[in-house]
Specification:
By secondary structure, this protein is of the alpha+beta class. It folds into two domains: about 90 residues, Phosphorylase Kinase, domain 1 (2-Layer Sandwich), CATH 3.30.200; about 100 residues, Transferase(Phosphotransferase), domain 1 (Orthogonal Bundle), CATH 1.10.510.10. The protein has six helices and ten strands, in the order βαβββαββααββββαα. The strands form three sheets. The chain has a six-stranded mixed sheet. A two-stranded antiparallel ribbon has the order 7-10. About 30% of the residues are buried. It catalyses: L-seryl-[protein] + ATP = O-phospho-L-seryl-[protein] + ADP + H(+); L-threonyl-[protein] + ATP = O-phospho-L-threonyl-[protein] + ADP + H(+).
């Protein structure tokens, strides 16, 4: 289980040497880093807590709770959380092959069917596992599927919109990426969490 360590800003540099930026969002930046003692490369999601409103703060803590809960070969692992006065650092497993969106864009003639089935099955296994733990991702899209080429795997990442659900009870929060949202979410209706997750997965 990932632990939460508290310290002062800059403490991250004592544990991890930060390198280039891998991605950027509204409140966070993802950086490549290396553990100073083991040399292991990781991805570090750096969240600026000073820019978060109440809703965003709730999403952040929900993301950490859900990622601590899910432990699966096809889900990017959260190693630890480092909490400082102004920033939260999520230390994540690092993929070595980019994300699925970039992969699709590089193959203009499409993917080999057998390979596509293999990757799709892995994504479905990850989603099914989450739903068994009553966790819904709510932002399924190619950009959130990362390649681990040495392992021959794809893994689901970015649980920023994830949430826990109770079977039989519907959710109401409108969230996720507009282009990949299920009709219920676009219409502002209540929705069944697992059904929406499957709908989004099959929409691509």
């Amino acid at each position: 289980m990932a632990g939460i360590k508290r310290g002062y800003d800059g403490k991250i540099a004592g544990l991890y040497d930060l390198d280039k930026t891998l991605g950027r969002g509204h409140f966070a930046v993802v950086k490549l880093a290396r553990h100073v003692f083991t040399g292991e490369k990781v991805a570090v999601k750096v969240i600026d807590k000073t820019k978060l409103d109440t809703v965003a703060t709730g999403h952040l803590f929900q993301e950490v709770r859900c990622m601590k809960l899910v432990q699966h070969p096809n889900i990017v692992r959260l190693y630890e959380v480092i909490d400082t006065q102004t920033k939260l650092y999520l230390i994540l497993e690092l993929g070595d092959g980019g994300d699925m969106f970039d992969y699709i864009m590089k193959h203009e003639e499409g993917l080999n069917e057998e390979l596509a089935k293999k990757y799709f099955a892995q994504i479905v296994h990850a989603i099914s596992y989450c739903h068994r733990l009553h966790v819904v991702h709510r932002d399924l899209k190619p950009e959130n599927v990362v390649f681990f080429e040495k392992q021959g795997l794809v893994k689901l990442t970015d649980f920023g919109f994830s949430n826990k659900f109770q079977p039989g009870k519907k959710l109401t929060t409108s969230c996720g990426s507009l282009a990949y949202s299920a009709p219920e979410i676009l219409l502002g209706d209540e929705y069944d969490a697992p059904a929406v997750g499957k709908c989004v997965c099959n929409s691509g």
